[in-house]
Amino acid sequence: ASRDVWLKQRASRIASRPEEVPYGAAMRAPAVAAAATLAVIAAALLQPAAAVDRSKFRTCEQGSFCRRFKKWIQRPQREEALWSVLPASKAALGDGAWSFQVKHKSEAQPHLLLQLNTYASGVVRLRLNEISPLQPRHVIPPGDVVADPPPAGVKSPIVSEKPDATTISFKSDAGAQITVELKHSPLGLVVSADGRVVQQLNARNYLNFERYRKPKARLPPDSTSDAAATPDEVLLDAAAHPHGLDTNGLWEEDFGGHTDKKPRGPASLGMDVTFDGDVPGLFGLPEHMVKASLPFYEEPYRFYNLDVFEYENNEPMALYGAVPLLWAIHRGAGGAPAITSGFLWINPSETFVKLERDPAGAQATISQWFGGGKASGPAHAWWTSESGVLDVAVLVGPAPAEVSKQFHALTGNAPMPPLWALGKHQCRWNYMSERDVATVDNSYDKYDIPYDVMWLDIEHTDGKAYFTWNPANFPTPHKMTDAISAKHRKFVNVVDPHIKKEEKFHVYKEIRDQGYFIKKIDWKMMDDPTDSKPADWEKPEKIPDPAAQRPEVWNEDEDGKWEHPLIANPEYKGAWKPRQVTDPNSPVSDFEGWCWPGTSGYPDFTDPKMREYWGSQFALDKYKGTNADTYIWNDMNEPSVFNGPEVTMPRDAIHPNGNVEHRDVHNMYGYYVHRATFEGLEKRVPGDRPFVLTRSFFIGSHRYAAIWTGDNYAKWEHLGTSIAMVGALTLAGQSLVGADVGGFFKHPDSEMAIRWYQLGVLAYPFLRNHAHLETPRREPYTYDEATMLNVKASLQLRYKMLPLWYTIFEEYHTQGKPVVRPLFWDFLSDAVTHEDHEAVENEIMLGDVALVHGIDKPMAEGGNKATVYLPAAAGWYDLHTGTFSAPGRYNVEVTLETIPAFFRAGAVVPLKNRVRRSSACMHMDPHTLNIYLDPATGSATGRLYIDDYKTKQYQDGKSFLDVHFEFKNGVLRPASTRGSPPAGVSSQVERVEIFGLARAPAKATLVVKGATTELPVPVARALPAGPGGQAFTAAVVKVKPWLDLAAGEWSLTVQ
């Protein structure tokens, strides 16, 4: 194994030894115990590299399909029409869908079928697949990515035909006028919103679609191709053209000591998309550790889910997950407003995406990177995938909220998470024993620090056999989990998809015996049955020597019959043998690779029967030691194969379900793993809300799992870039996301730990602290007292704000609004949010309510000040002090106690001021409503959503409370109230605090269903002016008796 794999395995073996690590409850620094000492020695013997080993991972140039696509798009006469739509073949499929046949100029028959769908939400979807292929191309099953039933189609589109194009017009659900022009030759698509072109597909004629061929054939089947006298001269696709074709890798490819057999031949596809207008930036494309405004690298962005050890910043190389969704901002000309659109590439095979500018725009982009100038003009992207079908969706927008809504209309809405999932998660590789777990749990209580979830990594298992417990260190797991439950907390165990090969391990035996493991092919070669001996291959090996003559003295009686001497025939071509091809009937066996347990099998999670089996293993009567408060973490599910090519599964491995090559589904493997886990937890406790964390993901993962950004570093740059990484994920529909607070590798010093928590509690929907085995302990109480108190204050702020977080998650669940998002999502009319470095890279919004600015450098290196941009709004109130600032750019001083964070003027913010040991302990506590007035109008609006926080009871349409607040003319009242709160939760308000008052109020009155109560005189305080702002007054109104929001008819007046 490679150096880092050896290190992981060595550390794993050390950590799994039975010595118990004694961590004292009052420990301020990590104890030095036997296992920890051994781990340090192991680290000293072999220090891991400080950077990713790039030699393990392919670039575009090292992958044959990407390399030949780059050559394809540089071909001479690229403008020449190759693939053309046959308008006479149009067939109406109903519900806003049509199909067309597509013909290549070098072929006699049309071999591609185009399907065009228009959805009422404003999505335009285009698909290309083969007609009667030699073998089926992989198509993602309905419901796995695109929702099933699919989104509602357009009911009454207007269709018009011209010789060169078919045009479809319709109004989206949001009222946008959408126009779709399908160009016939060359095939292209132009999509407009409200008269403005947003995207053009194949505008640069980059389209490539490699149909399946017979073994080693130059061209795919077609009467013209079959009769071609010189097939090498046919201009067909990226795998068959006369312009210096690179044939290396068409049928077999080597990388990193592994050979990828390709018996099905080349099957890649690609296309370009142009984002029209003045496009200041492109966003999205998770998962990559890059800036929020995507850099236009020379190397394309890669999507190939991998276990990347020690990944680095500012790299387009692949990481753990893939959502190939690209957002564009289109600025309007002549005062027209800015709009947005999205482009989604739905293909789970390896994919590369190259972002490009026209020459003038490219120069402006380079200038922008170096601090001057602005990106301008249209932006382009080309996309290429190794196999499968071409399936793309244009999310027409034009507003950001519509783009997000369109994505979820296409792929489905996320479930409502349980409230506890939004609290603090405490994790480490690894808590080593039941005693260790109890010590950590009790220490949180000793220092009165709230947290919700205790996590266990791989060392809790019996020899890395998942669904088991280490009998030496976890002898009574049911007592341990029940003790955590008794404190109203939860447990999460890691369960990875590699299955330890061991006869006594029942999970391995059952999967093997049912034939659910992925297979490997033991490749054999055979004579090509289609090959035949050429007619001119009849010349003999030897011919009579024409120069030889019978000697005159030759006497046949004495010398025998004279035979003409033979010489080598110069026209002899050698002994003819049929061409050798891979035997399609080569024997198969279970694929085995190395991972944490050693030799492991990998289940075929694409098979619904395998997913059903997997889910059944989480039943409480099967997974002994767990209880209904135990949830699951799926790690290493790219899948990670330590001895595989690029540390993953060979592409030519076979999924028995459908006889699909792994290359066709690679990026969806992790998706199918966490989906199986989620569905199993759903059945384990009917009505419960499952929780699953995944490292690997794909389009649609938001329906099943939380996501974290993987094995990051305790580095300031990783802290800073986490804003962009989290924002890219939420733009891609995945909102229950976060980064490991404090970094996974290395150890954050006190200042970095404080800053990371300050950011995480406001910017990470999923808030977890995790750490590598070899790092010192970093639970908040292990730091010095000042650091611990700072971290504790941040966590208490998170718990106070849980009502706001939960309400925003309900909007994500029902409307697809990202929980946290880049500033342009809410302030698109403010051009500064499109490309200003501070606004784009260092700031992020929590809903439309709060703005946070991260600090990504130590105080001694400039972290004692920040340049903050507050976008165009009614104003902003400091989240910590309540001071008011006008929109604008400000240089502000920063202390170690806080980072810049603000509430938007005009917002009503629901909070809970009574922080307890866990979120469940706060269910019955009353709320506080903070009102941040718009100074110009003296008004504010907001919302609070309440249900039982843990089950699906709210789906009955009544077991929840949804209150929309309105404050105007000194009166707070419900603008609307829906539902009724279930038992066991509070819908009461004990306190109202109003910010932005012109003067201190003298009285407060509460009216509930006609009954009036004089409340205590509000307690006022002066608020000094913030940067660019003015001085105001804040007042606290104590509500006695508490107001029950379920009352429906109520008002609170301050005068």
Quick structural overview:
It is built from 20 helices and 59 strands. The strands form 12 sheets. Strands 56-55-59-53-52-51-49-50-54-58-57 form an 11-stranded mixed sheet.
Characterise this structure.
The strands form twelve sheets. The protein has an eleven-stranded mixed β-sheet with strand order 56-55-59-53-52-51-49-50-54-58-57. It is globular. It has 20 helices and 59 strands. The relative contact order is 0.09. It is of the alpha+beta class.
Cross-sheet strand order for the largest sheet: 56-55-59-53-52-51-49-50-54-58-57
Largest sheet: 11 strands, mixed
- What general form does the structure show? globular
Count the E strands: 59
Using only C-alpha atoms, the radius of gyration works out to: 32 Å
Q: Structural class of the helices, strands and pairings?
A: alpha+beta
Q: Which regions contain 5 or more consecutive residues with pLDDT less than 50?
A: 1-49, 369-373
Proportion in helices: 10-25%
Mean pLDDT: 93
Kindly report how far apart the N and C termini lie.
74 Å
Number of helices: 20
Strand content: 25-35%
Give the secondary structure arrangement, pairings included.
Layout: H1 3-15, H2 34-45, H3 64-72, E1 83-92, E2 97-104, E3 112-118, E4 123-130, E5 158-162, E6 165-171, E7 177-183, E8 188-193, E9 196-201, E10 208-209, H4 223-226, E11 252-255, E12 258-261, E13 269-275, E14 282-284, E15 301-303, E16 325-330, E17 339-345, E18 351-357, H5 359-369, E19 379-385, E20 390-395, H6 400-411, E21 424-426, H7 434-446, E22 453-456, H8 477-486, E23 490-494, E24 499-500, H9 506-513, E25 519-521, E26 525-527, E27 542-544, H10 556-559, E28 566-568, E29 580-582, E30 588-590, E31 592-595, E32 598-601, H11 608-616, E33 630-634, E34 654-655, E35 660-661, H12 662-665, H13 669-684, E36 692-694, E37 706-708, H14 716-731, E38 737-738, E39 740-741, H15 750-763, E40 767-769, H16 785-800, H17 802-815, E41 820-821, H18 823-826, H19 832-835, H20 837-841, E42 843-846, E43 850-853, E44 865-870, E45 876-878, E46 884-885, E47 888-893, E48 901-904, E49 907-911, E50 927-932, E51 940-946, E52 961-968, E53 971-978, E54 988-997, E55 1004-1008, E56 1011-1015, E57 1019-1023, E58 1032-1044, E59 1050-1054
Helix pairs in contact: 1-2, 11-13, 15-16
